[in-house]
Amino acid sequence: MAFELAPLPYAFDALEPHMDARTMEIHHDKHHAGYTNNLNAAIEGTALVSAGIEDILAQVSKHPAGLRNNAGGYWNHHLFWNVMSPKGGGEPVGEVGDAIKKTWGSFDAFKEEFSAAAKTRFGSGWAWLVKQDGNLVVTSSPNQDNPLMDDAPVKGTPILGLDVWEHAYYLHYQNRRPDYVAAFWNVINWDYVNELYKNA
Known about the structure:
It is a single chain. Helix content is 46%, strand content 12%. The two termini are 28 Å apart. It has 8 helices and 3 strands, in the order αααααβββααα. α1 packs antiparallel against α3, α4 crosses α5 and α4 packs across α8. It is globular, with a radius of gyration of 16 Å. By secondary structure, the protein is mainly alpha-helical. Strands 2-1-3 form a 3-stranded antiparallel sheet.
């Protein structure tokens, strides 16, 4: 198959109590696996079978909605697993920490804006921290859209993403999305985010 489901970079229970093991297992092994399988089925027999995922996203508006949703779901979740870590949390340091403070004045101000983007995204979607032309911006997107897509309202390279689909949190947090968003800050892998920032 053109695209493969990478294993989680930690155990299912590694992010507890913030992200519960059962949700992580279902989210990765069922949802992310589903996006991966459906993406491969959508590109089978087409010229996209040899394309990279970023190339597909960069021309996604030319293709059916099914390809859009599954390509986005495949890429978004790969980022999501890696921006979390059992040793995560705290405030970012390094270049991304400096850039956040330069842009928002303080980490707390950034945290407030990102959290608001996640909490107020209607229905299913994502909140993003994006590097755009050397600057940082916060945005959100519906469904499995992301800022790499050619028709995204806010374009750039996502360096932090939070999944706010109900399947990401409902087993543990039920309808308390704000509690889930608050928990996310305890597991962010800022070292990984910093590397993405430097390489974007």
